[in-house]
Specification:
Layout: H1 2-8, H2 16-23, H3 27-39, E1 43-46, E2 49-52, H4 54-83, E3 87-93, E4 96-103, H5 125-132, H6 136-145, H7 159-168, E5 175-178, E6 185-194, E7 197-206, H8 213-235
Antiparallel strand pairs: 1-2, 3-4, 3-7, 5-6, 6-7
Helix pairs in contact: 1-2, 2-3, 4-8
Length: about 240
């Protein structure tokens, strides 16, 4: 690991003798370890100089992605505690709805995914918010693959009714659904558009607390707006 760290510190590469001296390793040991790291793809050797290899670069990329995910998780946890509701982050990617992170507590649990979120996007606020950000062709393609079906007695009745609702959705306005996905639960989602990425942050509440829903989602929208610049790279992953 010390050898990898030292190689990473030399943008133009470094010879074995220099790396051995900098790490305090005996030269034969350094040679042996460097050969092993080259063999495993963590280093590459060019004209007697050692550089990071593809395997090390994959490790670095994975670490960066974990850090970005941690940034989002920390933000959701902060908003969860500030507003006192479960907070969700989801994206529409490769033709599907992906719930990326959920932050809740035992006292304020998230909605149980009792029906596949990807297949029931028409029924929950997350799905409706993401679909409202797509163009008409992409919406119809989604509904061809995941047609409207009853989830609760309050679920939208058919494709036509859903499409009309999505067309009426106002840009940057919260999307609200009341017991359409889960009886006893109301949800609201706010759209987040980053370039061509359709994303959303959402909250849920027990139906008896429905009078809090709009004020809570507005508070979330303000929090996201204040931090969106610093989160933009992280939430687009």
């Amino acid at each position: 690991m010390r050898l990898l760290e030292r190689v990473a510190g030399h943008a133009h590469g470094a010879p074995a003798k220099q790396l051995a001296r900098e790490t305090g390793l005996a030269l034969p040991t350094a040679y042996h370890l460097l050969r092993t790291l080259v063999h495993e793809g963590y280093l590459r050797r060019e004209k007697g100089l050692f550089f990071l290899g593809e395997a090390a670069e994959r490790l670095a990329a994975g670490g960066a992605q974990q850090k970005r995910r941690s940034t989002v998780i920390d933000a959701l946890a902060c908003w969860r505690d500030t507003i006192g509701v479960p907070v969700y982050y989801a994206m529409y990617r490769d033709g599907d709805i992906h719930v990326m992170c959920v932050s809740d507590t035992p006292g304020n649990p998230a909605v149980e995914e009792w029906a596949d979120f990807r297949e029931t996007g028409h029924a929950h606020a997350i799905g409706q918010c993401l679909l409202s950000q797509l163009d008409e062709e992409a919406r119809r393609d989604h509904l061809d693959r995941y047609p409207v079906q009853p989830v609760t007695p309050y679920t939208v009745g058919d494709d036509h009714s859903l499409l009309k609702r999505l067309e009426r959705a106002r840009r940057m306005e919260p999307v609200v659904e009341r017991q359409e996905y889960a009886l006893g639960t109301v949800c609201a989602a706010i759209p987040i558009t980053l370039g061509t990425t359709a994303a959303t942050m959402a909250i849920s509440l027990p139906a008896q607390d429905a009078d809090r829903l709009l004020s809570a989602v507005r508070q979330l929208q303000q929090e996201v707006g204040r931090h969106l610049g610093s989160l933009a790279i992280s939430i687009s992953i």
